Structure to design on (143 residues):
């Protein structure tokens, strides 16, 4: 014959609920990274590549139409946010020191994408930084 008087049914249910609550809480803490942060980083990576390619294309287009003596000024559009976060794009030297690259990054989700501007820096010095929250983005060339 079994002795069932060690733990009451109410206490047994409370213990089972506490264990389930702790396991569910751990799962909820881990799911934010799995279901929210990871897709946001993936979307940011793809969009930053597109934005970097767009800025690079605009720089090369400006380079191609730039006169020997004179100025060219053009504005361009980039989205204000990607995956709900603003971002910064700037131009820096590549590791080989010959070319420049457009770097698009977000300090919020640690995504950084670099797109090389091939050959333009050898004839026209290229530099600059812009934030996605800036209302007007401009490429200006003066010689």
């Amino acid at each position: 014959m079994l002795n069932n008087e060690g733990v009451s049914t109410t206490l047994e249910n409370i213990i089972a609920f506490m264990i389930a609550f702790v396991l569910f809480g751990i799962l909820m803490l881990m799911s934010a990274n799995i279901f929210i942060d990871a897709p946001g980083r993936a979307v940011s990576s793809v969009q930053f590549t597109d934005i970097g390619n767009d800025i690079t294309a605009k720089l090369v287009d400006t380079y191609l139409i730039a006169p020997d003596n004179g100025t060219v000024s053009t504005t361009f559009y980039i989205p204000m946010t990607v995956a709900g976060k603003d971002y910064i794009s700037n131009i820096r030297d590549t590791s080989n020191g010959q070319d420049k690259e457009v770097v698009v990054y977000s300090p919020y989700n640690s995504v950084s994408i670099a797109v090389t501007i091939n050959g333009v820096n050898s004839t026209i010095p290229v530099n600059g930084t812009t934030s996605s929250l800036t209302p007007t983005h401009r490429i200006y060339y003066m010689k």
Notes: The two ends are 100 Å apart (CA to CA).
